[in-house]
Amino acid sequence: MVAKVYGFLTGAGITAVAILGFNVWRHVSDEDRLELVLTEHCLPYVSAGVTPFDGMGRAIGVYDGITTDERITNGGAAVLFDARFVAEWGEIAEPPVRICTVYGSTTDAAQQVFDVAPDGFIGGVSSMIEPFGDLRPDVAELDTTGGSESLVRSIAWREQNGPNDGGLNVTMTTAGGLIAEVMVFKDLVQKP
Q1: What is the pTM of this model?
Q2: Angle in degrees, CA 75, 159, 185, rounded to 5
Q3: Which element (helix H / strand E) includes 168?
Q4: What does each of the 192 residues of the chain score in pLDDT, given as a tens digit?
Q5: CA gyration radius, the chain
Q6: Residues near 59 by Cβ (< 8 Å), separated by ≥ 6?
Q7: Euclidean distance between CA atoms 113 and 105, whole angstroms
Q8: How far is residue 91 from each of residues 32, 74, 95, 189, measured CA to CA in Å?
Q9: What residues contact residue 175 under an 8 Å CB cut-off, 6+ apart?
Q10: Are 137 and 154 in contact (CB under 8 A)?
């Protein structure tokens, strides 16, 4: 009888460790999601016209209560990451830009952000987007001292060798390590 109990406890322990290991192995963090949105979808779309979010997420349904930007044409929209975010992509006629944006959905206010570590954030994003051009941030690092982590601000990475009012841009709306919106856009008309 004691051997059966020890055998059961040993089997249960091994199973628990295996399940824990599997969950850790398959965990996808918000940093991973943000990198996926930027490097696999939005930047390739805006830079080269590669269709973003193909086979990812689902179409926006009538009961989602999501209103898309009517100015965006020749693109699409999808609900991503368990209905936490909405992605929209396409072209805006005036000014002529190709745009890809990901923002919080209206279904769960507590989960409408990418929750990322603020320390090293600017450098981390800069490294992610480096293969897409010489994009430089407008700030050196997020200031998280003295309560300013709750300050909502917009951070932009702009193309350094392009025109001042155009080129490739990555913009994020942030409060500390909470990213509420990601927008990537590029003007479609080359300026002198």
Answers
A1: 0.77
A2: 15
A3: strand 168-175
A4: 656 545 654 554 454 333 433 334 446 898 999 899 999 999 999 999 999 999 888 988 888 888 889 999 999 999 998 888 899 999 999 889 999 999 888 655 556 688 888 778 888 888 889 998 888 888 766 555 555 555 677 888 888 766 556 788 999 888 767 888 899 999 887 655
A5: 21
A6: 77, 78, 79
A7: 9
A8: 26, 6, 10, 12
A9: 149, 150, 151, 152, 153
A10: no
Q: What's the burial of 53, exposed, middle or buried (CB within 10 Å: 0-12/13-18/19+)?
A: buried
Which residues is 66 bridged to in the sheet? none
C-alpha–C-alpha distance, residues 156 and 177, integer Å: 15
Q: Which residues pair with 183 in a beta bridge?
A: 101, 171
Q: Which DSSP string do the residues of 92-145 spell out, in sequence order?
A: ETTTTEEEEEEEE-SS-GGG-SEE--STTHHHHHHHHHGGG--EEESSSS---S
The reported pLDDT for the residue numbered 179 is 85
Query: How wide is the angle at C-alpha 42 spanned by C-alphas 41 and 45, nearest 5°?
Result: 85
Q: Please give the biggest Cα pair distance in the chain.
A: 85
What's the rounded Cα separation, in Å, for the pair 102 and 80? 9
Secondary structure percentages of the chain, helix, strand, coil, to 5 = 35, 30, 35
Q: What is the per-residue pLDDT across 57-81, written as a single tens digit (0 to 9) for each?
A: 898 888 888 888 999 999 999 999 8
